[in-house]
Amino acid sequence: MNRRAGDGRAPPRLVWAHRGAGTDLWLRLELPEPTTLWARRIADPDGPGSSAGVPGLDDPATAGASAVLLSEVAVAGFQELHLAVPEVAAALRRATGGDTAEARFALVTGDGIPLHADRDAAAALRAIPVVVDGAAASVEVRAGRDGTARLRLARRAPWLEIAAVRRDGQVVVVTGHLRGVPLPHEPHRLTAALVDRDDGDRLPVPVELHGEEVRLRIDLAAPPASASVHHRNVVVDVAGTPVRAAAFADDLVGKHRLVLTDPWEAEDAGRWWTTTVRYTDHDHLVVTTTAARDQPPGDPLATWEVEHGDLDGDGTTATRRRGQPVLRAVLRAALGLLAWWAGRARRRAPAAPASGVPPPADGAAVAVPHRVHLLLANLHAAGGTVRATANLANALADRADSEVHLVSVYRLVRRRYVTVVPEVRTRVLVDAPALDEQARRGPIGWLQRRLHAAPSVLIPADDPRAYRFSLLSDVQLVRWLRGVRCGTIVTTRAGLSVTAARFARPGVRVVAQQHVPFETQTPALQTELMDSYRRVDAVCVLTEADAALLRAPLAAAGTTVRVLPNPLEEVPGGPPPAPLTARTIICGGRISPVKGTDLLIAAFARLAEHHPGWELRIHGSARADRLAAAQHLVRTHGLHDRVRLLPPTPRFDLELAKASVCAVPSRHEAFGMVIIEALQAGVPVVAFDCPVGPAEILTDGRDGLLVLPQDVDAFARALDRLLQDAELRHGLAAAGHRRAADFSPAAVADAFVTLLRGLEPAP
């Protein structure tokens, strides 16, 4: 939703800021007319973007050293700028007269109008380190309190920029260059150590100088066994100045997951411990030693097998709650009685109009939008279902005939991976962080804690995420369902569909969305789902294959079955186009067997030697054991410097722009959000022709490449074709971009509203 000026034009705004290649800064702007972009120094960091305290800035061109010209924009509308951070930082430093302790600048157009910063415009962007005139500094994009876009230039500590990490036996060799601090003239004034974060204990590390290159030799056997975990920072002392080793000059998001070298497994007197070299969340190098244990290390691949819970996971470990048997029995009986009564009432009650709002008492006609309640398990998780539901909510909210509510049964963390426009009304029924921080006292608090600790009695046990629900979520979910008196409830997973079919009020429509292939559910859950589908108004599936399975069994019940694909996200100005020149293969999806992470690593291993310089980036959530298994596979193939296991990112479209090929190696795929996102970004796709989604999106050889399921050699050959043939990459990308139009948010929202209108009762 764009804010509009009085003349109907959109005001100048910063849509997003993102880390590009190396130290590039990518900016997406929306400008009402051609103009110039300036960084204008402001005296009050929390004041308005009108450069309070700086004279003569009504015209930035007359501001002298107080304003910096960043770019000239010759075309109105959405524009994408690539700025080299070192050049920008140098110009900003000159504007401060050399004072880089901290300076803030407003981003303004040539006529002095500040850019408004969209919400979360720079949410995933940290400060970018840079060296200006030999001094270490950082540049950061952020939004001011008044909502305007800002640049912040600040001093920062010097660092050792890592160029390479390799293991030689029990020694890890780290090479790099000092940034922001000069090399000492006397080599003996350069020392290094592993510094324990807890007690400051120092383990010396040999350091050598090769020209301007600094080389450290870290002995993984040096850290001793301990009863607790120890993290040791890698620190170089340069003539009395401590400098941490880090790696900033790249475009990786979430470097803390990278596999750097094989871990060192140590044993002494029947105790085992592991030492690893890794990056922290802030890109510093750290050596971590686990607590000593009585058991030898197990097989890291022991848990790498497809489980039922993998088919619809959120990357977390399944641990079922226990306890509260009496409370569970009482609540189960009470909810069962309510479900029996609600089910009888729902079966015999006529449906309300699709708008969900009864007419006024006097019978006068009134125009009311469609009221849609989208029900998710967890809005604050990373995954295709969450992205698709948020995209549908935003698209419906953009229509004049729809009112949208987005309800999350629970949330476990505050971070959200999707963007929801302000017009969508959001609600969380069980907010775990708030429960922990604001625990209630007295009988109500005691009961709340007991309910939250006990497992659900409503969500079917075979729902892969049943363990995440509780008695407290049962109570809150039933209260919410009974509180919805009009409109349409749209469920997004099996357990919610079953529960809504039992408890939704008479006259409230229920549309069950199925986001996983029906045949991948257990037989018991299939039976329960089919019974629930007979009591809802419509079932929406993602593919024609699933629709064919459901139409005949549900025909007698009168349940409508429709194919409703997942919509793309509405990216302002469109996603950044991928130039298809980067030597990067990208994959998006949780790190698990069902998503074929192991198959992709094996396929890349077959071609890596023939394509030096190419790397594989896999973005996805992961259980700890599954991540460890994937890291083991990477090390086994000797690909620790070529395969990047990275966490999910809220702006996957921006990561796609840095790639030339998208790999989708899933063993099962309900639809394939990553496929259509890659098509939208103009990145060619290679996918297994697995059940059931990819073949309904891609046509082999026209807008993508499909290969036989789980055929690693065929997948490697398909990747090899694209890596060698730039013309083929561009041809598939162009056809794929045209195919992506079928999944636009507006098109899917239109189809959904058409479904609602078709469910309206005859007058």
Quick structural summary:
With 763 residues, the protein is of the alpha/beta class.
Structure description:
By secondary structure, the chain is α/β, with parallel strands linked by helices. It folds into 4 domains: 13-154, no CATH class; 159-289, Elongation Factor Tu (Ef-tu), domain 3 (Beta Barrel), CATH 2.40.30; 327-359 and 367-428 and 462-563, Rossmann fold (3-Layer(aba) Sandwich), CATH 3.40.50; 584-743, Rossmann fold, CATH 3.40.50. It contains 17 helices and 34 strands. Strands 11, 12, 13, 14, 15, 16, 17, 18, 19, 20 and 21 form an 11-stranded mixed sheet that branches. A 7-stranded parallel sheet has the order 24-23-22-25-26-27-28, sandwiched between helices. It has a 6-stranded antiparallel sheet with strand order 4-3-6-10-9-8, with helices on one face. The chain is globular, with a radius of gyration of 28 Å.
Highlighted features:
about 775 residues; alpha/beta; Elongation Factor Tu (Ef-tu), domain 3; Rossmann fold; 11-stranded mixed β-sheet; 7-stranded parallel β-sheet; 17 helices; about 25% helix; about 30% strand
Poorly predicted runs: 1-6, 47-64, 315-322, 347-368
CATH topology of the largest domain: Rossmann fold
Structural class: alpha/beta
- How many runs of DSSP E, i.e. beta strands? 34
Question: What is the CATH class of the largest domain?
Answer: Alpha Beta
Write down the oligomeric state: single chain
Give the overall pLDDT as a whole number.
86
Largest sheet: 11 strands, mixed
Principal-axes shape call: globular
Number of helices: 17
Distance between the termini: 35 Å
The percentage of residues in β strands lies in 25-35%
Helix content: 25-40%
CATH architecture classification name of the largest domain = 3-Layer(aba) Sandwich
What value does the Rg take, in angstroms?
Answer: 28 Å
Number of domains: 4
**CATH homologous superfamily annotation of the largest domain:** Glycogen Phosphorylase B
